[in-house]
Amino acid sequence: MHQVNWGIIGCGNVTEMKSGPAFGKVDGSRVVAVMRRDAEKAKDYANRHHIPAWYSNAEELIDSDEVNAVYVATPPASHAGYAIRAMEKGKPVYVEKPMAATYNDCLKMQEASVATGVPLYVAYYRRFLPYFIKVRELVDSGVLGTLLYTKVDFHIAPRAEDYNTENLPWRVRPEIAGAGYFYDLACHQIDLFEWFFGEVINVWGKAYNRRGLYQAEDLVFAQLSYASGMQLAGQWCFAAAENEHSDIISIHGSQGSLTFSTFDFTPIRLIADGKTEEYLPGNPENIQYGYIRNMVEELRGIRPARPNGESALRTNKMMDNILGKQ
Questions:
Q1: How many domains does the chain have?
Q2: What is the pLDDT of residues 131-140, one digit of tens each?
Q3: What DSSP letter does each residue of 250-293 carry, written as one string?
Q4: Cys staple from 288: which of 19, 71, 105, 319, with CB 3.0 to 4.6 Å?
């Protein structure tokens, strides 16, 4: 593929800065069409971002001769349908995380990718951010000694829209999102942990709804065991008091510890050999840029293609096990 001409299905908030502009900053890549069910919003997005075509029907975008790759940025429940149709048309697909609303949908997507030979990518872009590359580098360096255990402490207060019982946000509606905020946020962490620690051999979890603001889980506990011997315990609370906020991951070894965050991008703190060091690598303006650049280079044949549908499938399976969906 000499030139990657993207069509975006679902040009909502995530595409405004996190991803959308990055497609045009990579050599051999551009956005040629966008789709949103609200025609006026699709037209407005296209005009603001100087995109030549817009649609209110996803099938028309997928069928367009001008589009040879598709980015699906809709809520998870619709990922499978759009992605499979695009792959059957021979068009590589990039879908937002999580891969889909259910493990079965993820499985269908990955099977379609294998059957058609068309690459399937999922937006676990944190593996390509300098911040987490530094964390991985420190983990692999041996500075922590024998890796022992990891703790995740993530708790935030409900968002203002979570109190709107008449019109709850889609991220806490399991029929659209797959679950609640755990599905939307913790998936990044679970993906990173596989990158850091390798194969997972055992997963345990328990989910609760304590505040009753919506039907999805708002409190989750999990334990994961890795073939490498690493043991991980995490707690996620999305119902904390208004003045509470915690986004902390700590990796402990026989010779030191490493502390960092997933979303706050606090300084990475290494305590080892009797001293403390801090690192704070910067992020690109468009946070998905590194992954999009790598993906485009793979599609253009500059580097070997390594679609991540298979690992994204595992992430969904682990989340479903933790939440008791399997």
A1: 2
A2: 999 999 999 9
A3: EEEETTEEEEE-SSS-PPEEEEETTEEEEE-PPPPSSTTHHHHH
A4: 19
